[in-house]
Specification:
three-stranded antiparallel β-sheet, 4 helices, alpha+beta, Arc Repressor Mutant, subunit A, elongated
Amino acid sequence: MRKGILEYCVLTIIARSEVYGTEILKELKAAKILTVEGTLYPLLTRLKKGGMLSYRWEESHSGPPRKYYTITEDGKALLSELGDSWKQLASAVHSITLKNESVHEESH
């Protein structure tokens, strides 16, 4: 499940604007989704090989060239599917936890 959520978050970030790996890691970290390079870059490679992303290289003024990722049309379609799945999952979890909350309220 976590892999699907990470994929959803990464595609969402890339869908907003062209970004490079370090920017993705920073945004995930800021959202408290702790991810390391060893998890992110294989995911990006898998998404690229699957046709969900494309990238271009750009020279950097502060180090080696950077690989900037963009989402493809196939990636947008996957993002939409993942969004629907996330909404269904969130709704199901909410439904279950809401019942739990009402049980606790009745017992007080």
